[in-house]
Amino acid sequence: GKLFTWGLGTSGQLGDGTAISRSSPVQIGSDSWSFIGAGGTHTSAIRSDGYLFTWGLGTSGQLGDGTTVSKSSPVQIGSSSWTAIQAGDLHSLAIRSGGTLFAWGVNTNGQLGDGTTTNKNSPVQIGSSSWIAVSSGQQHTLGIISDGTLFSWGRNHVGQLGD
Fold first, then answer.
1. What is the pLDDT of residues 132-146, one digit of tens each?
2. How many CA atoms are closer than 13 Å to the CA of 118, on its beta-carbon side?
3. In angstroms, rounded to a whole number, what is the distance separating the alpha carbons of residues 145 and 104?
4. Nearest to 136, CA basis, from 104, 100, 92, 82
């Protein structure tokens, strides 16, 4: 359950409290982690107790902490009971226990799935279905609900939505 990061760190996306790139793994805290999602310049992770944390570039609200400020160390988002996380290029998505889907960050192409193209700095609930999986691309998102139905939304300039 230990979390290690390395690579480009200029936006704080490694979570080690710096904006330095690392060519060797560096451990992030001493907590036990269960899930991680790496975006273009931000990172999201779920601790083993179900709490969600984000860090890195935050200028478009992609950290979900209600601000547009970048963070080089993990910041907690909401309360516990998160089960899955996905970090896109400048947006993030997460599923809570019970299957509720939340999204935040850049939404210029509708990639958050809330029916708008307005960026969100905090998690907003997406629909009322029971989601079991979610995946994000640069400007699009895919999700599966509990009956196995696949949904896609966001930018579709080269057919990435599959419709």
1. 999 998 899 999 999
2. 8
3. 19
4. 92
